[in-house]
Amino acid sequence: xxxxxxxxxxxxxxxxxxxxxxxxxxxxxxxxxxxxxxxxxxxxxxxxxxxxxxxxxxxxxxxxxxxxxxxxxxxxxxxxxxxxxxxxxxxxxxxxxxxxxxxxxxxxxxxxxxxxxxxxxxxxxxxxxxxxxxxxxxxxxxxxxxxxxxxxxxxxxxxxxxxxxxxxxxxxxxxxxxxxxxxxxxxxxxxxxxxxxxxxxxxxxxxxxxxxxxxxxxxxxxxxxxxxxxxxxxxxxxxxxxxxxxxxxxxxxxxxxxxxxxxxxxxxxxxxxxxxxxxxxxxxxxxxxxxxxxxxxxxxxxx
Length: 303
Fold this sequence. Notes:
Blueprint: H1 2-70, H2 83-87, H3 103-109, H4 115-118, H5 139-147, H6 152-165, H7 170-174, H8 181-194, E1 201-205, E2 215-226, H9 228-240, E3 245-255, E4 258-270, E5 278-282, E6 288-292, E7 295-299
Antiparallel strand pairs: 1-2, 2-4, 3-4, 5-6, 6-7
C-alpha cells in the first residue's frame, strides 16, 4: 500500500514538472515571438527615421549648395548654413571677393569686364558718361560708386546706373527675358533706318520653333520694294545686330523695274524660368513620394 502511494506521488510530481516545463516553454515562445515582432518593428522604425533624416539632410545640403553656388551669402563654416548664418546674411553688403568662385563673382569679375562685351558699351546714355572727361564710365568706377553708397536710396540709384551702364547689359539686349514684339519691331526699325530704308510692311509672323530648351521665338514678316544694294545693306545690318535674328526664308522678284523683297525672320528670347519648391513625403513603408505644386512627381524605391 505504501509503495502504491509512493508511486502515485511520483507520478503527480512528474505530471506537475511536465506542466511547469510546458508553461515555461510556452512562456519562452511567447517572449521570443514578442521580441521578434518588436525587433522587426523597431528595426523598421529606425530605418524609417534614418530615411527621413537622410532626406532632410539632402534638402538642407541642396539649399546650402544653391546659396553658395550663386554667391548670396558668405561660405558656411561647417559645410551647410546654420540658422544664424542665414539670418545674418546681407547680400547687398557682401563684397565680390567674399564669394570667390561663385556665379556672382564670375559674372562680376569676368563677364562684366569682358573686352568683347565692353566693346559694345552703352556710350549713348548720358548717365554712363563721366561728367569731367566725357568718356564712358569704366567698370571699376561704376563699382566704386556702388560700394561707396552711404544710404539705401543712393545704393539703389547707383545699382540701377551700374545695371544700365555695365557691359553685362549687352546680354539681355542680345537675348531679352520676355516676349516683347514691340521691342523687336523697334530694334528692326532701327536696323532699317541704319540701312537708309523704311519698310512698307512689318508685322508679326509664324516663328521657327526654337531647338534649345528655355528659348522662345518671335516671328516677323518683312515686305518691301527697293533696289538690290538696299536689300544687301538690310541683310548685312540684321546679321551685325546684337539681337539674335535668323532669316528663315527670303524671296526676291522683279516687277516693273523694282525689286520685291519678302522675308520671314525669327528672333529669340529667354522664357521665364521659375523655381518651385518640392515636397517629399516618406510613409511608414519607407516609400518617398515627390510632389511639385501639389502634384505627384514619382516614387522612390522601397526600403
